[in-house]
Write a structure and sequence with these properties.
By secondary structure, the chain is α+β, with helices and mostly antiparallel strands. The chain has helices spanning 26-30, 57-72, 162-174, 186-211; strands at residues 11-13, 16-18, 77-79, 89-95, 101-111, 121-128, 131-141, 143-149, 155-161.
């Protein structure tokens, strides 16, 4: 998901509040930049495979690379299939409307079905790193709870409100083979794709410049 919120004091890492945190997640210092897949690539349109092996160097390296790639692309969240890896995993560094920055990763995420009384639908702008350039208004609930596992296979429950809830839903849907474009009508989708075609080269150029200072 493309970043759309300002960064502010207060940080939750893996859902737990921490006293202080660096500007970039420590994982980014260990990672390398990967190519971000673009709408039309097959891996983005099918359900990703579950993570079955936890605590491995390969999984840790993937998370490191995903954080580095997220920052290069100036995003708020990034799913594994967006770096061409067929696994149910995503990372986030996302600030919400109440001044809390949320940072973390989750494997095999599943969204809870929340009662209607615990959520309301918000029509707000949404973009995607795999749809470089455009954003569109997409209705989503303002409250989300996602359950999964951390890198070591320990159970994890992450709750979000407002923009962070949108991020959690957006990234979980990526791993189900859906983009925000799939929530648009045909006319809106075509318009977004035309806008992407016109802007993608500039977006890619900005990413290339940032990659020179973040992970190479």
């Amino acid at each position: 998901m493309r970043d759309g919120a300002s960064q502010a004091p207060g940080v939750r890492v893996q859902g737990e509040r921490v006293g202080s945190y660096p500007r970039l997640a420590p994982e980014a210092g260990r990672g390398s930049v990967r190519r971000i897949t673009v709408v039309g690539e097959e891996i983005l349109s099918r359900r990703s495979q579950p993570v079955t092996e936890f605590g491995t160097p390969g999984l840790s390296r993937l998370v490191d690379d995903m954080f580095t790639t997220l920052y290069v692309a100036e995003g708020a969240g990034l799913a594994a299939n967006q770096v061409d890896v067929d696994l149910r995993l995503f990372v986030w560094d996302c600030a919400d409307e109440w001044g809390v920055r949320h940072v973390g990763h989750i494997a095999n995420p599943v969204l809870d079905e929340l009662p209607a009384a615990e959520r309301r639908l918000l029509d707000e702008g949404e973009g995607c790193l795999s749809v470089p350039g455009p954003s569109r208004t997409v209705p989503r609930p303002d409250h989300a709870v996602v359950r999964g596992f951390d890198l070591n296979g320990d159970p994890l429950v992450i709750e979000g409100f407002g923009y962070f809830a949108r991020c959690l839903q957006h990234e979980t849907e990526h791993l189900q083979g859906r983009l925000y474009l799939d929530r648009l009508d045909r006319r809106e989708r075509k318009g977004a794709l035309r806008e992407m075609a016109a802007s993608r080269d500039d977006v890619f150029a900005r990413r290339a410049e940032r990659a020179k200072t973040l992970g190479g």
